[in-house]
Protein 1
Amino acid sequence: MAKWGMVIDLDTCTGCQACTTACAMENNRLPGENWQDVLFYHEGTYPNVKLMWFPRPCMHCENPSCVSVCPTKATYKDPDGGFVLMDYNKCIGCKYCQVACPYGVRFYVDEKAVVQPDIRGVFPSEAGRQWDPPYKGPQDDPSRGIGIQPHGVVSKCTFCYHKVSKAPKGVADLDEDIPELKEYVPACVRVCAPKARFFGDLDQPQSMVNKLIADKRGVRLKDETGNKPQVYYLSGGATASVPSLRSMNDSGQS
Amino acid sequence: MTSVTVTNKEIASKQLGIMLLALIGLLFAGGLAISNLMTAGHAAFNTDNLGLFWGFPIVIYDYFLLTSTGLAMVASMALIFGGEDYRPIIRRALWLALAGLLGGVAVLMMELGHPLRALWAIPFSFAFSSPLYWKVMAVSFYVLSLVILQARMMKPDWQTQDLRINAMVTLALALAVTAIAGVVYGSQSFRPFWASGDIPVAFIFESLLGGLAFIIFFTYLAYAFNPAAVPASVKKLFNDRLTNLLALAIFIHLLFVLARMSSGLYGNAEGLQVWQTLATSRLFFAEIFIGLLLPLVLLVNPRTRIRPWAQILAALLVMNALLIARYEYIIGGQLVPLFKGAWAPPLLNYAPSPTEWLLLLVAIFLSNAVNAFGEMTLRLGREG
Ligand code: SF4
Ligand code: SF4
Ligand code: SF4
């Protein structure tokens, strides 16, 4: 059984948001409610200001606090692959998982629209779903949080379960440059132009993700939470770096 | 004798008036809230996906739930240890505990995404790792034991062993519900504003404080705030014991709040910066000075402590201070956004929406309607 992980190289990431856009298209995200987002911070004060950015999907934690707090087991860790997924049929919308996730990667589907006009009103759903966009991903699996969400539930990044789970068994890396594997690569990884994102099996020592983590000293976001993310960041310090705080302070710094 | 009879009749008609008013209010507030929720959905609340996930409805729910457990603690401890003196308040406190709980749960049901699904999805999930699972299970058994205890107390003879056991079970469940409610927040280690091992204990003291304030206020309400109609046994209990207990509970609660505030102001963990804003806010000042210190003064001053108006005012102020405290605690723990970078300000802005305020009215009106019904039909002041 694989344990899928992602490595994001902050030295090569340009903050272009292609990953965000690809994820939004792949998963029919509402504008502004991005399962994958690039966060911008600035450091220093004028005139010595530096812009920082930080791409952030769900960490698919090894020890996910969202899973342990869920009172209905609607959010769960799939032992085959290590995906942290949502079962929309069991979720009661209590939002405890949102409260308990240290990384802010969960979204309650019925909040006010972040971007106006509210696109849910432009493309209303007849089928009790959140909306009915003109293009919908072909996959629909509510028991794994794939497809347009119903009302009253929490949603999150699936690590593109609908693609990754179909990859040939035993493969160490899902690399968009390998033609026969590219269909199984998560959308955000596949579109990354500077190739800052890598996806592979953390349980296979020879995988590229493990090599990168070892060679470039991969770190996990807020490791002190004990959640043990399966997303690692590489940061040589030349450009963007892993933020030490979850918010900006009063002077807008991370 | 005649004058008391007349007063009782007057009081009964006042309870009917309270019930009718509460029902009209409930119809109005509930209807408006439901219509807002039907049209705008959850967007009728001012919560968001930046970090403020649990808003005022959760504050209301926890406030009513913990008031209910506080009342149950007061009643069951009175049955177990209190002796004869406490008899006049026991049945009233138990009924009020049920009424309050009903108000809180009604609000929770209007907040949840799938309230009906929750009824089966939680009990059958066996999600033992979730504090919320245990909270719901504990609340279910707590309601059951409250109902059984109330039913048992309709019968005379309150000295029996079975009644004591029933009261002990109710006390244990009330303590469990309250402590688990504390664990829900206290276990969030990456939210230092919430996280602390002593939160369940603080919650228990806050519940007790709420229970004492509510029983004093609602006992006077049961006699239409007419001190002449209040039985001598009740006056004696209030003057000799409950006011002292209420003052002590206020003092302990103040210690918890001030201890949290000082470590919050001096600590530099991310999330504690909320205290810098909170400790200088008008709401916080109102809570401390008007909601807690003023009642404390009223209750320890020998000239005021036995005055009914002072007892009523102190209880009312404490009831409000506890709502503010619950609000500050639950909202304050979420004001620092979670990894949103420049998409969110350093501290989130939140104020309850009109629909959220309506839910407070729903809880108040529903609990009052149920309580007044109990006062009218169950002779809650019976002493054995
Ligand atoms: S990042 Fe948050 S939502 Fe994702 S697995 Fe970890 S705790 Fe759960
Ligand atoms: S919102 Fe849904 S997934 Fe999250 S804790 Fe509640 S029931 Fe579980
Ligand atoms: S793995 Fe898939 S769902 Fe997750 S951020 Fe990337 S594209 Fe979005």
Note: The beta strands of chain A are 4-9, 37-43, 50-56, 75-77, 84-86, 107-108, 154-155, 197-201, 231-234.
Protein 2
Amino acid sequence: MSVITYIIPRTFSNMRGNWLSHLMTALTIAFVVLIFGLSTLIYFNLHRLAENYSREIRIVTYIDPAFFPEDIENLKAKVLKLHGVANIRHVTSQEGYQRLVQQFQDEKDILTGLGEDFLPPTLEIEVTGTMHNLERIRPLVSELTSLPGITDVYYGKEWVERLRQAADFTRLITFAIGGLLLLTTIFVVSNTIKLTIYLRRNELETMRLVGATNFFIRGPFVLEGILQGLMGSGLAMLALFALFEFLKTQVNFPGFIRFFSPIFLPISVVTGIIAGSIILCAVVSAFSMRQFLRV
Amino acid sequence: MDSPLIELKHVYKSYEQDLTILEDINLRIGKGEFVFVNGPSGAGKTTLLKVMLCLERSTKGEVWVDGINLKRLSNSKIPYLRRRMGMVFQDFKLIENLTVFENVALSMEVCGIKKSAIEQRVDQVLKSLGLEIKKRIYPRRLSGGEQQRVAVARAVVNDPLVLLADEPTGNLDAGRAADIMSLFSEISARGTTVIFATHNQELIRSTAKRVIILDQGRIVN
Ligand SMILES: Nc1ncnc2c1ncn2[C@@H]1O[C@H](COP(=O)(O)OP(=O)(O)OP(=O)(O)O)[C@@H](O)[C@H]1O
Ligand SMILES: [Mg+2]
């Protein structure tokens, strides 16, 4: 009842009376939430990329070129028995050379002077689904390395690990920015509220004198905080989306992730960020009021 | 008077340790009674009223209002006590950025009363105090006497159980003061207890009401 007839109109009149500081507050919240959102977005996509990569983990083992075909068949049988191996493909030196020729179609010259058998033969090993994880793949790799005839094992570990590290790092940054967001919001929102309270101290005092409850006095300020959180974070999410769409058209991804298309934060995360901002602002407003609610 | 509406038992009030503002106040005021509180400036009249409204808590002693021991009243219950008491403040305490109408309506709004009921009642009270044409005006554009009448309007608009009036006629000419007096008498006749603090001896002599005389924080009569 009093929420509609009193608290809402009062909130708007409070905000009108002090609109510049409210605008600054909303913009500050928007800015911090934007940075937080950006960092979350980067983490989110790096994480996806790392996941994609580990899903495609393939082990390539180089075979001693002096091995005879029947030795290779032997080796294949041994490898197939290892835990986690799904499939094996033997790639001969010649096949390897043909692949290169196809890859360098226009720049075939690069390959002139290299014999068709300059590449060692390899075994390409597909791992089973449960092995799409660096920790699980390491034991398999060391088993492979110890097999006679295998000279080298390559499994793109550097990339996957670097991606993982980058993802972990951005997650750390995201947490740090989240903390910063918390502090900034607390500081800015409570200052705005305190300014409003200061401007309206006589009014607030008088309201207490005529029997207003704390809920009634606090209501407009909490609603004000909610609106600021909503405006600030909503604005930030719109800006982040625009920035994302813009960057997508501008940035040329390096070859190895050419086929990865970054996606925007899922709606659940966006709603979470907005809801979190609203709750934070409301709580901060309610708390900044506390000292004025003594009797 | 068997069960008084307001009762003070050995009430002391001091802000600093050694400075006593109210000293051993004992009072019993009945329902619908009209009482003057008289005494020189600084005697403690305002403080006495503030203690009754729970704006100040007594340092020692008991204050009872309508069967409630104010010492036991929790902060969250105070608003409900104040809604049943109206106070005309010596310095009016009007809200600058609200109109005359809105200032008076505030007392009813905080109680959650319907808008239509508020409008009707506020108009009625403003009219009885000769303020209906000033309804849309902001307090700073009113004369001192007009502001005082707005403060009176706000205090009586809820038909309070107790009306605490702190120098409500201080800025008024004799005619207006008499108007306020008769308004208060009428209210008190309808059952509201009126406590009227003033140092205006003439006003007190013109009526035959009970008078409590304070001097340096003590009741001296
Ligand atoms: N908040 C306060 N802190 C300290 N002392 C106070 C406070 N309020 C009032 N006093 C002191 O209490 C005494 C009584 O003040 P009070 O306002 O009750 O007097 P009064 O009888 O209403 O005077 P007047 O007729 O001038 O309004 C004064 O000496 C005043 O200085
Ligand atoms: Mg006084």
Note: The two ends of chain B are 19 Å apart (CA to CA).
